[in-house]
Amino acid sequence: MASFFTTRLFFISLALVVIAATLPLYVSGYVLGLLTVAFYFGVFAMAWDLLFGFAGEVNFGPTFLIGVGAYTAGILNAQFGWSVYACIVLGALASVIAGLVLALPALRVRGPYFGLTTLVAVLMLQNFIVVFADLTGGEIGLTIPDVISINAGVNYWIALGFMTISAAILYGLSQSPVGLVLQASGQDPVQAGALGFNIVKHKLAAFIVSAFFSGLSGALLVFYFGTASVGTVVDVAVGVNVIVSAVLGGRRTVLGAALGAIFLIVAGEFLRPTGELATFIVSAVALLVVLFFPGGFLGAALSREARS
Amino acid sequence: MRAFQILIDGFAISALYALGATGFTLIFGVSGVLNLSHGAIMVAAAVAAWAAASILNVGTYAGALIGVGVALLTSFATYFAVVKPIQDSRRIPNEEKEIFVLTGTLLWGIMIQEVIAYFFTNNAKTVLPIVEGVVEILGVRTPSNEIFTAIVCCFVIALLWLLVNRTRTGKAVLAASMNPRGVTLLGLELTNIYVVVWAIYGILAGIAGVLLGMFLGVSSYSVGPLTASAFSIVVLGGLGSVSGSLIAAFVVGYLETLTAYLVSPAYRTIPALLLLVFVMYIRPQGLLGRR
After folding, report:
1. How far apart are CA B55 and CA A33, in angstroms?
2. Nearest 10 degrees: Cα torsion A260, A266, A267, A270
């Protein structure tokens, strides 16, 4: 672990964060707003990668955890008038509970069955939000009266700091003995179990950590947007973006997932002049990366370094 | 009266679901591929049939044929451009191929969806039905098209059953789903079998798509829900089990119709989802699945 602080990856990450932290001094509020969203998405993707890349569980419903966190925070603030920070903490807690509820039945099944269980969870949440429209704002969405800050720079710094801390914790966890056990149980559960590790306990822990960061990030995002809607935090399409980010950036790298998310959102914005074709181009690029560089951006870079 | 109506409407919907899900489960059974571009292929077929009939004025029959043809081509494109490269790739570890196929076909489906939206807009399109008019069955006024849909679905599924169980090619496909290595040892080329399966899949998805376009209409927004419903029906029935998906299609179809008529159309999909979670919990391999 200590050797990490001398690797090139550490210095590059450090340099990137320092450069990113100075951005508000010279770029426009528009760019900052874009990157703020991208950073929260980066946390979604990293949390997903912990579950997929390490625990080997294909979670098709990252937005179930994100949505529960986001809507809990949003509802507590909009309907009950609780303070922003209490709402954010409770949102993250609700997401952890949702993660537990989802994980207990879901961990009984594997592969595509697990994927479907998580997908169904998202569809159920979506139905729930539409049916209980009085509480949740339904399909139109929930307007949230409070925001963390109205200053674009402050919002940007909060998002950057949050992403950096999350990345440090998630990456540290993935490189720790716990991460190794997770990786082993993802690749060969029988053998990992035979070595005396409690696989279910480890996977459950991964689920809880993933849920915590997803929910926290979802809650923060809601207070940045000032609204919670199915289209922004729950829809399956949002979950697809999270998955594509993680695979694009390089699965099993955690940090790559954040890069992938930032790339996806910034590229989508650059392609805006192409109109409706933007999504097509982003999907096509992602498909090419999946086909020709299955390790993703960071995976390709790391393997080149390992070779030289 | 209402009971008959539920019975008839439910049957048509269920038959359509069954047809859509059969191809999906066949591909999984034979090559272990979960094709998440399924909905996109169905919509492509329906939109092609609509465009041929309404813009090029080729007539409803030719339009439907063109729709099925487009689905066949798209299905081959999916196999050769996305699925086969991933399966043959040496850089992807074997145990991760499943997630790569899922991600790849998902992205491919989004690309098809965007192309459709770009050229034909997001508006809902209804393919001109082959048979028109209304007939009265057991005191229920039913569109002839609905009966036609149900009959075609049942006919095609019966044809598929004959193909798989009674022809040499079909038996090879069946054998490949049981033991791929055994088939290659008997001197059959596995790739040829896969091509046959993707052809069958393309035709089935195409027919289902065109019928759906006539019955309910489609838009590029239907892509996700169509894939999701095929996925859940197939998992409910047991992945890879064709008879399981047929049963599951009827269970889901009737459950949705019952809910829509007796409770509210808004809650249509909820009981089916609850049932799915329940079945996954007590019987994770689905109704007729093998592990």
Report:
1. 44
2. -170
- In angstroms, the CA A51 to CA A62 distance is 10
Beta bridge partners of B137: B140
Residues in A touching B104 (Cβ below 8 Å)? 287, 290-291
Query: What amino acid occupies position A151?
Result: N
Q: Could you tell me the pTM of the whole model?
A: 0.84
Q: What is the mean pLDDT of chain A?
A: 84
pLDDT at A304 over 80: no
For residue B107, the chain A residues in CB contact (below 8 A) are 244, 283-284, 286-287, 290
**ipTM of the shown complex:** 0.81
As a whole number, mean pLDDT of residues B243-248 equals 89
Q: Which of B36, B64, B38 is nearest to B50 (CA)?
A: B64
By C-alpha distance, which of A173, A48, A170, A54 is closest to A118? A48
Classified as helix, coil or strand, A86 is helix
**Residue B129 region, left (φ>0) first, then alpha (ψ -120 to 50), else beta?**
beta
Domains delineated in chain A: 28-307 (1.10.3470.10)
- CA max distance for chain B: 62
User: Do the Cβ atoms of B215 and B146 come closer than 8 Å?
Assistant: yes
Decide: helix, strand or coil at residue B125: strand
Interface test with chain A among B102, B114, B282, by most A beta carbons within 10 Å: B114
Task: Output the CA torsion B54→B57→B58→B60 (10° steps).
Answer: 40
Q: Mark yes or no for CB contact B280/A105 under 8 Å.
A: yes
Q: Are A230 and A141 in contact (CB under 8 A)?
A: yes
DSSP symbol at A294: T
